[in-house]
Design brief:
single chain; alpha/beta; six-stranded parallel sheet; 16 helices; 14 strands; 47% helix
Length: 414
């Protein structure tokens, strides 16, 4: 449910009240019977005329009205004050507007010493902010968001004490002009790998010693692996959100299953994109020898299995089977059941396609076929509906966002 957020801006409040005070001084002077040398009839005019001339002071001051005359002394002092201050207030507002146009909002950062600077405004940023807020370090956070990529801007601004700045893509690259090296941490969480790599390179150019402060996300694991020996990778901390999520899932639900069964399990990965590939890689790392077969079900199963082979870091101690097909197609599952899921040992199913509804529907259908199987249905974002349905059918509901948030190391933001 969308949340309505009211934000208190001290700067805007001060400007508004100062303008009201200046107007009140001019308007009060006219009401008290003070006249002006060039418009002697103003003192006897109605309140609407007084209000009109009081507003006009912000544009021309008193140049078209002449000097205050008559009326009580304190009334003339009020009007003189409005004469002098109103045009100054207007000039300062115009000057600030021009300065704001010439200097992007990000340059309004007064000090980032010992601050945590986050670049990006997607789900990853929200996960990091949840962890940072829980640790009590929210006052130290500055979030810089690309103008073209801020789907969660209202949520970002709802975090108390977190300062959020929106900049254009061109301005993002001008960050080299700002002394960012004074920050305590840099979390480069943009959804575009090229931005994260570019900013990491800019920071390292400013100061090669900054590498220990830089943590950045790379969505393309193949690209990250091929650059594993480059300085921009070795000097910083890099991560992939699906790898983090898969690590958390493997350490939790999957390892518990493997240790609780007396036999070596069969694992069926339905959906073999970035997350599915990361799950298999973590199983190879953490549970080698504890499962005997893996069935990969995907529209591009063969090609993606070859991609996974590039990332193989240990000797394969299981048999792998690939099935190209839609997991909504009953024929695909008939082939899996006939060739892989044999005997009384019920398998582990990980439903990890990019379609949450497909994962959920398939999970419920599989539960009807296998009473004792471990069935895991993945959603991209937290879903109360999916959680409740999965609980009803004894299916484990996980989502990428919460898995990533739970696996973020404290050292990355402290």
């Amino acid at each position: 449910m969308a949340k309505l957020v009211f934000r208190f801006d001290p700067e805007m409040t001060w400007k508004s009240w100062s303008a009201i005070a200046i107007f009140a001084c001019g308007f009060g002077g006219f009401l008290l019977g003070v006249g002006v040398s060039e418009r002697p009839d103003v003192a006897e005019a109605d309140i609407f005329t007084h209000a009109y001339y009081a507003v006009g002071l912000f544009v021309l001051g008193g140049m078209d009205l002449g000097t205050p005359t008559g009326g009580p002394l304190y009334g003339r002092l009020l009007l003189w004050f409005a004469y002098i201050v109103a045009p100054i207030w207007t000039a300062s507002a115009v000057f600030e507007t021009i300065l704001h146009a010439l200097r992007p909002p990000v340059w309004r950062l007064r000090s980032i010493k010992n601050k945590i600077v986050i670049i990006g405004g997607g789900e990853l940023t929200l996960g990091f902010l949840n962890r940072i807020t829980a640790s009590g370090h929210a006052r130290r956070v500055i979030v810089i968001v690309d103008e073209a990529q801020h789907p969660h801007l209202d949520q970002l601004r709802s975090y108390r004490s977190v300062r959020v700045f929106v900049v254009t893509g061109d301005q993002m690259h001008r960050l080299r002009r700002y002394p960012l090296h004074k920050a305590s941490k840099f979390l480069l969480l943009s959804e575009k790998d090229e931005i994260n790599f570019e900013l990491a390179s800019i920071l390292l150019d400013q100061d090669p010693e900054l590498g220990s402060k830089i943590v950045y996300h790379v969505s393309n694991l193949r690209f990250l692996r091929i650059l594993a020996d480059s300085k921009v990778v070795t000097q910083c901390t890099t991560f992939n959100q699906y790898e983090l999520a898969a690590t958390q899932l493997a350490r939790g639900q999957l390892m518990k299953r493997f240790t609780s069964t007396a036999y070596r399990d069969t694992v069926v990965l339905a959906g073999f994109g970035s997350f599915g590939q990361s799950v298999l890689e973590q199983l190879e790392r953490q549970a080698s020898g504890q499962f005997k077969r893996v069935a990969i079900v995907d529209l591009d199963a063969d090609q993606r299995a070859l991609i996974a082979d590039e990332q193989l870091v240990t000797e394969r101690k299981y048999h792998r089977h690939t099935y190209e097909g839609d997991i909504d197609d009953p024929e695909t599952w008939q082939r899996v059941f006939k060739e892989v899921v044999t005997g009384e040992e019920e398998p582990v199913f990980v439903l990890a396609t990019g379609d949450d509804k497909t994962n959920l529907r398939c999970a419920i259908w599989l539960r009807q076929q296998f009473k004792n199987a471990l069935i895991i249905s993945r959603t991209l974002a937290p879903s109360v509906f999916a959680k409740r349905v999965c609980d009803q059918y004894d299916v484990v509901s996980v989502n990428t966002a919460e898995l990533v948030e739970a696996s973020i190391p404290h050292a990355w933001y402290r």
